[in-house]
Amino acid sequence: MDKNDIAIGNDKVLGCRETMGGEDALVGEDATYKTNKYDLPFVQIVGVTSTNKTFSIAFAFIINEKEENYNWALTYLKLTLEECMYPRVIVTDRELVLMNACQQVFLDATRLLCRWHITENIKKHYRQSIKSQHEWDSFRAMWAVLVESPTWILYTKNYRKL
């Protein structure tokens, strides 16, 4: 292994740009809650390239979903990365302690909420306020157009239609 190689577990991760084919990547983090034989939260960190390729970056079992445990996992992840590999964008669900830990460890990263989690929350909390199936289907179609808006101008226009 040379200085551009990083070992994480048994997997070899190439240095800076080689990892993502010369592209920047979006980093997503989420924890499953005690759905494993260890009965511990499992934190999985994945990357997504600009060409929509996903790859595993790291994972950890933590004692509980508290900020200091996420800080620990993210700090050790950061220690394995070269500075040029630090994420520029981090996507999470709305778990506040995870969001806080991301902000503390990766200060310069933009933090976004996961589109899938937002959509699931809309289904859970907003669906019952729309009575007809036709109106719900129409809303979902307009929502899909909104979240797929390729520019800020189109997003604003589609948001007003919603």
UniProtKB/TrEMBL annotation:
Superkingdom: Eukaryota
Domain MULE transposase: 30-121
The protein's name in its UniProt record: MULE transposase domain-containing protein
